[in-house]
Amino acid sequence: MIPAGGMGPATIETVPYPSRTWRLDLNQGRIRGMVDGLASVQQSVYKILNTERFHYLIYSANYGHELGVMVGKSDAYVRSELTRLITEALSQDDRIQGIEHLTLEGGTGDDLTVAFIVVSDLGSFSFSQEVS
User: Fold this and answer.
1) Cβ–Cβ under 8 Å, residues 131 and 109
2) What is the pTM of this model?
């Protein structure tokens, strides 16, 4: 016999995480104060794109990028897959909705400069980084 009554089905409420975090001072290599809002999202994008996925045990398997798989691949393959890999890496942050206007500029040797606009819940900003 199944008991009658009880609490019924539970409702699950999704609550977004606050965006306030420690501010990284990249010039001094220190943590200085706190950062919130769009500046926090900018710092998150920088951290994700400078952290190799599966390399550090402190991060989950979803955090970071897999751009290392591009080493030794043809230029056409790199250009076609770069958008997907960057979008996949940044999609782990629930504040980021996507990227737009990704451009690649050839640098010296095997270096590329990647530039794009990050669209988030808190606003949009441009981001560029050199990829070796």
Assistant:
1) no
2) 0.79
Query: Are 86 and 101 a contacting pair, CB within 8 Å?
Result: no
Ramachandran region, residue 63 (left: φ > 0; alpha: ψ -120 to 50; beta: rest):
beta
pLDDT tens-place string over residues 67-121: 888 777 777 787 788 888 899 999 989 899 999 998 888 765 667 788 999 999 9
- For residues 99 and 115, give the distance between their C-alpha atoms in angstroms, rounded to a whole number: 10
Q: What are the C-alpha distances in Å from 31 to residues 28, 41, 45, 111?
A: 9, 16, 17, 29
β-pair type (123-131, 30-35): unpaired
Q: Among residues 16, 59, 57, 62, which one has the least CA distance to residue 40?
A: 16
* CATH topology (fold) of 21-131: Nuclear Transport Factor 2; Chain: A, (3.10.450)
Measured CA to CA, the distance from residue 18 to residue 129 in angstroms comes to 26
Domain extents in the chain: 21-131
